[in-house]
Each structure stands twice: as C-alpha cells, then as structure tokens.
C-alpha cells in the first residue's frame, strides 16, 4: 500500500489525540460524568456505538490511527528480514577459529596452518586465500625433500589481487641441521631497499 | 651476393663484441660459510640474495654445499645477502657487487652447541 496513505493516517491520528487532549484542557469538551448526553456513532457496515464519553471515542480512534501504520511497517520489515542467526550481522568474514594442539619434541618445531598449496609448481602459482585484514601471510617453498624456504611475511590490505615478487630457486638445503647457530634479528635498515 | 658475403665478417665481430659485453656485465658472487664443523661436513644453509626491490628482478635462492660454499652469477648491483639455517636467519649483509667477489662468512663465534641431526 502507498506509504503516503499510512503517513496521512498516522498524522490524522496524532491530530486527533493531541486535539482531543487540547480541547479537554481548554474545557471545550468535557467528560460527561453525569451521563446525561449519550452520543451515538454510526460506522460503516451497520456498526453503531453509543457512548456517554464521545471524547474517549475520538481519543482511542486517534490512538488506533496513530499506532497502526508504524505497527504495520514494523511487522513487514521484520517478516522481510528473517535471519536464522542475527549474530551473523555483527561478524566480519572470515571469522577466525582458534585451533589448538600440543607438540612434544626435544627440539623446537615450526608449525604452520596451511589453507592452500600447489604441488610441483614450475612457473606461475595462484592461490585463493581467505582475506583477513592485517593478517600475516607467508608462502612456503619446498622441494619435496624436506627443505623449506619461507617467503617474507606479507599482509593483505584490501581485496585486490596481490602479486608477490618472483623467486628463483636453485636448490634448497635439506632440513637436517639443528639450529645450533644463534639466529639474528632482521635489520630493517639493511632490508629497506631490498624487501 | 658477393657484398653480402663480405658483410659476414664485420657482423660476426659485432655479435662477438655484444656477447663479450653481455658476459662481462655479469658478476660472480662466491661465498664460503665457516662453522666449527669439519670441511665436507658443514651444515647446509639456505642462501637468499635480494636484488633491490626497484629492479623487479627475482629473489635468488640457493643452498650451500657440504663445504659451506655457494655461488651466484648476477648483474652488478647492490644485494642483500641472507643466510638461513632451517627457518632462522643467521646472517644478513648488504653487498655491493662491482666486480667478482669471494666472501668468507665466519659463524664459528656464533655457534653455541655443535651437534647435528642425521637425515631421516
């Protein structure tokens, strides 16, 4: 139905409610406590209402006219937006799920959660990755014989496709040595022009 | 036809010249990583060589051999050299390659415990 009709209806109801209260306050109409004046209202469909308090009829009719349009629209909106889980509206995808595990080893172990891989790649590789704003990503290059080279960590700032720098791998050292040489922290000043 | 035949010699010289200039434009970076392990039993390092990021050239990766030696043939430029033992960075240096270079990298003073794990 036309929304303007509902608005008109609501405005008319508001005028009736406010008007009846105003007239009561001014004394132009009174609540007939004595019951001497009986008013009769003929409604369409042969409905007749008799009351000793016509002002109340006007007031409640005004309330009905005022309240029905918002109620109608509210119900329509609710029916049109049925959602099985309203909590979904407050989520940012992809939602992260915590996965925990225990590693028992005499030596430190690197653990990675992998969401995509491409075996035996020679030239171009393409991955469809879940996007997490500000999340750290890495590519791991493996020759299939145990040696692994991780790429430098990178972040995805938006949903645009991202091309990483090419890498030319001659050989990868097999993972046979324990880290008995103390590692060093990467020097950002040295890396500035290269990474 | 005879003229074309005579042109072959200068053209050959020209291409030889181009070839030598191109070959000369490459620099060789060789290196040896020294640890406490005996020669022939050195740990294998992953060696990464980063060209300047503005050059858009690929990152080069190789591994050192059992004598700790590695080699790159690259265009003359500045490079970031990184050594990795497994996934941990153990050495980082900016190298300017104007001419062929042989770098000895001594990690003996950084070695805490000398032990190795046999390949599975």
Q: Report Rg of chain B.
A: 21 Å
Q: What helical percentage do the residues of chain B reach?
A: 10-25%
User: Architecture of chain B, according to CATH?
Assistant: Sandwich
Number of spatially distinct domains of chain A? 2
The biggest beta sheet of chain A, please? 2 strands, antiparallel
Note the run of SSEs of chain A as H and E.
HEEHEEEEEH
Q: What proportion strand of chain B?
A: 35-45%
Level of helix content of chain A?
Answer: 25-40%
The computed structural class of chain A is: alpha+beta
Q: Could you say what the CATH topology of chain B is called?
A: Immunoglobulin-like
Approximate shape of chain B: elongated
Question: At the first level of CATH, what is the class of chain B?
Answer: Mainly Beta
Biggest interface goes to: A-B, 36 and 46 residues
Instruction: Work out the oligomeric state of the chains in this entry.
Output: heterodimer
Give an overview of the whole structure.
The complex is a heterodimer of chains A (195) and B (120). Helix content of chain A is 28%, strand content 12%. Chain A is built from 3 helices and 7 strands. Chain A has a two-stranded antiparallel sheet with strand order 1-2. In chain A, a hairpin with a 5-residue loop joins strand 4 and strand 5. In chain A, helix 1 runs antiparallel to helix 2 (54-80). The longest helix of chain A is centred in the middle third of the chain and has 27 residues, at 54-80. Chain A is rod-shaped. Chain A starts with a helix and ends with a helix. With 120 residues, chain B is an alpha+beta fold. Chain B is 19% helix and 39% strand. Chain B contains 1 helix and 7 strands. Chain B has one helix spanning 2-24, and strands at 27-34, 46-50, 59-63, 69-74, 78-85, 88-96, 101-106. In chain B, the strands form 2 sheets. Chain B has a 4-stranded antiparallel β-sheet, with no helix packed on it. A 3-stranded mixed β-sheet of chain B has the order 4-1-7, with no helix packed on it. The longest helix of chain B is centred in the first third of the chain and has 23 residues, at 2-24. Classes of the chains: A alpha+beta (195), B alpha+beta (120). Chains A and B meet through strand 5 and strand 7 of A and strand 2, strand 3, strand 5 and strand 6 of B.
């Amino acid at each position: 139905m036309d929304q303007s009709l509902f608005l008109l209806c609501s405005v008319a109801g508001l005028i009736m409610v406010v008007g009846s209260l105003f007239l009561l306050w001014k004394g132009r109409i009174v609540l007939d406590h004595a019951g001497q004046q009986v008013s009769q209202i003929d409604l369409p469909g042969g409905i007749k209402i008799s009351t000793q308090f016509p002002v109340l009829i006007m007031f409640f009719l005004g309330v009905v006219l005022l309240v029905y349009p918002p109620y109608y629209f509210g119900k329509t909106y609710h029916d049109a937006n049925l959602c099985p889980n309203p909590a979904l509206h407050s989520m940012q995808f992809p939602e992260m799920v915590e996965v925990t595990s225990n590693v028992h080893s005499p030596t430190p172990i690197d653990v990675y959660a992998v969401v995509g891989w491409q075996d035996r790649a020679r030239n171009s590789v393409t991955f469809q990755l879940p996007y997490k704003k500000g999340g750290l990503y890495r590519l791991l290059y493996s020759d299939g014989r145990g040696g692994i080279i991780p790429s430098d960590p990178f972040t995805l700032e938006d949903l645009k496709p991202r091309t990483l720098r090419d890498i030319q791998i001659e050989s990868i050292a097999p993972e046979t040595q324990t880290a008995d040489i103390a590692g060093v922290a990467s020097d950002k000043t040295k890396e500035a022009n290269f990474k | 036809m005879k003229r074309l035949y005579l042109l072959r010699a200068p053209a050959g010289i020209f291409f030889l010249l181009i070839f030598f200039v191109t070959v000369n434009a490459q620099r060789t970076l060789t290196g040896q990583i020294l640890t406490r392990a005996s020669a022939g039993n050195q740990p294998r390092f992953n060696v990464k060589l980063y060209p300047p990021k503005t050059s858009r050239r690929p990152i080069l990766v190789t591994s050192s051999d059992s004598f700790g030696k590695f080699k790159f043939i690259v265009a003359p430029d500045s490079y970031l050299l990184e050594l990795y033992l497994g996934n941990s960075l153990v050495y980082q240096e900016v190298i300017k390659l104007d001419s062929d270079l042989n770098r000895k990298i001594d990690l003996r003073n950084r070695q805490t415990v000398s032990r190795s794990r046999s390949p599975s």
